[in-house]
Amino acid sequence: MIITCKKGAPQSEIDKILSEFKTKGLEVNLITGTSYNVFGIVGDTTVIDDRRLMSNPWVENVTRVAAPYKKVNRLFHPEDSIIDVDGIKVGGHEKIVVIGGPCSVEGLDQICELAQDVKDAGGCMLRGGAYKPRTSPYAFQGLGTEGIMDMVEAKRRTGLPIVSEIMSENKIDEFVKYVDLIQVGARNMQNFELLKALGKINKPVLLKRGLSNTIEEWLMSAEYIMAGGNENVILCERGIRTFEKYTRNTLDLSVVQIVKKKTHLPIIIDPSHATGSWELVESMSLAAIAAGADGLIVEVHRNPECAWSDGAQCLKPDKFKAMIDKARAIAHVIGRDL
Amino acid sequence: MIITCKKGAPQSEIDKILSEFKTKGLEVNLITGTSYNVFGIVGDTTVIDDRRLMSNPWVENVTRVAAPYKKVNRLFHPEDSIIDVDGIKVGGHEKIVVIGGPCSVEGLDQICELAQDVKDAGGCMLRGGAYKPRTSPYAFQGLGTEGIMDMVEAKRRTGLPIVSEIMSENKIDEFVKYVDLIQVGARNMQNFELLKALGKINKPVLLKRGLSNTIEEWLMSAEYIMAGGNENVILCERGIRTFEKYTRNTLDLSVVQIVKKKTHLPIIIDPSHATGSWELVESMSLAAIAAGADGLIVEVHRNPECAWSDGAQCLKPDKFKAMIDKARAIAHVIGRDL
Amino acid sequence: MIITCKKGAPQSEIDKILSEFKTKGLEVNLITGTSYNVFGIVGDTTVIDDRRLMSNPWVENVTRVAAPYKKVNRLFHPEDSIIDVDGIKVGGHEKIVVIGGPCSVEGLDQICELAQDVKDAGGCMLRGGAYKPRTSPYAFQGLGTEGIMDMVEAKRRTGLPIVSEIMSENKIDEFVKYVDLIQVGARNMQNFELLKALGKINKPVLLKRGLSNTIEEWLMSAEYIMAGGNENVILCERGIRTFEKYTRNTLDLSVVQIVKKKTHLPIIIDPSHATGSWELVESMSLAAIAAGADGLIVEVHRNPECAWSDGAQCLKPDKFKAMIDKARAIAHVIGRDL
Amino acid sequence: MIITCKKGAPQSEIDKILSEFKTKGLEVNLITGTSYNVFGIVGDTTVIDDRRLMSNPWVENVTRVAAPYKKVNRLFHPEDSIIDVDGIKVGGHEKIVVIGGPCSVEGLDQICELAQDVKDAGGCMLRGGAYKPRTSPYAFQGLGTEGIMDMVEAKRRTGLPIVSEIMSENKIDEFVKYVDLIQVGARNMQNFELLKALGKINKPVLLKRGLSNTIEEWLMSAEYIMAGGNENVILCERGIRTFEKYTRNTLDLSVVQIVKKKTHLPIIIDPSHATGSWELVESMSLAAIAAGADGLIVEVHRNPECAWSDGAQCLKPDKFKAMIDKARAIAHVIGRDL
Fold it and tell me: For D333, which of A61, B69, B74, B329 could close a Cys bridge (C-beta 3.0–4.6 Å)?
């Protein structure tokens, strides 16, 4: 950690700043510059609050050299983490996973039919929303527990592990019991109480990146879950908010290699929410595989015009299958299987 | 609501799109354009999900004419709402309110001393965080219930109503019992389960704008609370995320008059989180008053360098008082009192 | 074009708004809504200035149904445009092009050696900056005319057409004489005087997207060039500014299919500026090809640590070749050649 | 400047990195950290290109301690710069200036009438666009030289110095001859050839901040002009692009005090372009004065609905006068005059 101080700071102020480091066992080095004095702090600086240092009027700037995350950091965990989702392995050199299913569970028949479609196309997990985060209180809010139980039945019939979004710590027990991969949505990426609760369980968590969050903030949210004791975290990029109006969000595929460099966690891509348009889903899915992603999570619906939510971004099952076939060929080019 | 359809859409597709409107009692008007056909839908279109319409490949675009919010909308509630916070009136032509206090409650003595400082300076409510949303799991997370009880004692001694942030629906009972103005932080602005829970109580809610949310999304979150039955909502702008690195966030003061035009709710400004720097707090506070805000919420600390969180953005009590005195003079210029 | 008017507007105001349309031969349709009246304007509305309409206080909103561009619009030019760059065809179903070369021309030997490296690796055009847009006036500003002449010699030796950035209309004659594909950089995307000057020549123009511009603004800049009479425009995405700090910019690959849907122009991708890091260039290049791009423009340098600018994002020639080989295999998967 | 290197870098690589500093007379200090080694470079580091350092694969990060600008920096020029615009002083403790006038010059009568209106209301300079940067090639592009000559006549009649936007280095002679304060628009903030040309003249330059540029980039553009020899620079904030759709741009008033802290240059605010709506102009003007701005530049038109451009954001002369009267009272509160 580097602390830049204005010239002319009285020794008493300098001592005030530095005393904290010494009591925490950190080593302090001074570089005397032309316009500023610079202190380099050596040791585990994740315990230091940089904004508190900034409150001293003699401090011009505080810069971290080391990342603020530890559990997530590849520096301290060089090998890839492989996450086991009810028998399906995700990450490392494992087969690339494709998760498919509707935005919302709309009933038992719908989800069971779609589960079969997903399986037939080559998908290996079933997604479906039972609790839906909707901007408007007047929009469909999901079937709730009934939707979860419909997915459980679809899993019984097809064998596909199920993925669903949790919106409240109050539902943790239900999700631990029934859901194989618990999704934290973009809007809850910094719902810290929910993250803490997920840190205390053992089920894999699919942590989506927030709409306007940096990769570092996203990794800090993963750190919350892992610091609590649950090391089964899969990251999911689903597009970020930009000024562009022709897409719902802007898919950031550069995260794939960045996440792999900074962390040991698997990363999958959601091209459906990222684009908001089924016409863009195939091209973004193929691009994600070419970029090195460990998986895809794609919205699929037999009749998108009648979907209860987000029909605009659903692929029909035949298009979903066609996409998977091309994605597999691309995976082979870069030395992966799917 | 305006639906733009590509030329050449078969009548069966058009009928499919339009049938839903007719069953919902909405009226449909057709304008035949040169490159597109346009349908105008008349009636209460808040019940229509525009993304479902977009799933039809013949639909090029869907545009809302009317706002998607109702309870919040000034169109249907022309007079200003005045919110009563334990006897202090906020909004309309009432006195401008100034809320002061530390980022975090650090103990009984600290909060009681500061409450007196805030009162002496001319502040009319006390803020203080007991549950803190922190990016890092290793940072101080707040004193919790103990912090709330310290604030209750500070209120008993000074008479100042108290404002504190709620981070989980599980704490609703505690907040209803002890806190006068329940703050929803920026990161929870779209924590819809929390908003629904707050809709069922009667205590005033201070709803902060999310870091990257549009005003419309913010008003939709207010609509969640009001649709649930709690009409005591005060909006709070606290800066949005931009590319700028010299400030923590960018304070958007144009919201003041926009909120007053679009809604009947009061709006207050948080210059501390918006800037992240005490050196900017006075100028942004005065600007907020000049812009017409109904109040300010400002971080105050006797010894910012030792604050347990966010010391960099705290005013010392004497600077807080000096700011209030100037703010009062500016309020008089625009015909308000403070 | 849809104009939303407040209820209660006096007929004289309505007449004032509508009279302009009638004199321009546009047809006006009225839809009477519950909260607003809506006018639909039919005809060529690109001649209407929507911000002038907004100045009428009775107008609530103005929305365009049709795109504001004509020459660029695929609606009026359904077949793909193929741009000929000194014999190399770009766009449609032509071979995907790979352009390589250094950020800055550093001298005759450097550019001639690199031109041969690019050719050997499978590249088909040579890039090199002679005029450099630098944030700092103290940074290297490019070799100017000397750099252009060095590229001309490199072309003579290798046969590769050359691509270079123009920064001022005053250099048009030099570029028309010597450069095969004239690049407009991101910072000049809305330098309208430069765009007008490029509209009057016949040489192909490579139009980069601005750092924070929407696709629509980018297409309007292409429209400037085409409206002037030069229809040889190739679009280039080079990353947009986002909040992310781990990359220089964020590459937006969804533009590829959007550009192909909205326009008939070719689109190529610059993964070097988009990421700012050579470690990300291969994965983003492969993703771009998988997404359907018509080409790549990649920075290559034999000795990146000594590059006079942007060494951090340069591939060495062997890595450039390895990338092209994988890109070719991916191109085959999606039915293209490279 | 702080350079963070990965552990294990061979000494030959370290030497390669450090050799450059030594030849440039900079001093190097080493701090050995737990995960990284850190080099602190002392001296004038504005000559170092940080992106070149990043090209070395052993370098993890490069951070500047000192600002990259010199001429602009208050550290080396502690007293306020006062810029003289044909006799009107701007900056320091001088009277706050109010510049008014139409978006576009529409003819001699219009600009002369408005000049008188501006003067009568208390304005001290006249603005008017003769060369207009328009997103669409089909929109009105300005009267050009004729517009400039109309303004010259308006100045002759009223005595008000004139402010107008330059869009091309080719017009420098015309502007030097006739215009008192030469405006560089947001879209040309990084048109470096134009900035260099303006560095060679002596007329004051009004440098607007780019739509998505950071304050540092803005100051670097001012540095371009000053490094060329022209020290007469006034900065102008005109709103930045954000996700908000209810305003044209988002006015960032925190720049006022930041600019005053980092630089010695005057700063004025343009509330018209910042908001895009006349209904917001008064509140943002008053807020700007309360925040400490040295001036305002406001669009004024007698008949906004008929303005040739940007009517939506024009004040009528009587509203302009009313705003100035309130602004003056606020100026007095903070110890300034207007």
Answer: B329
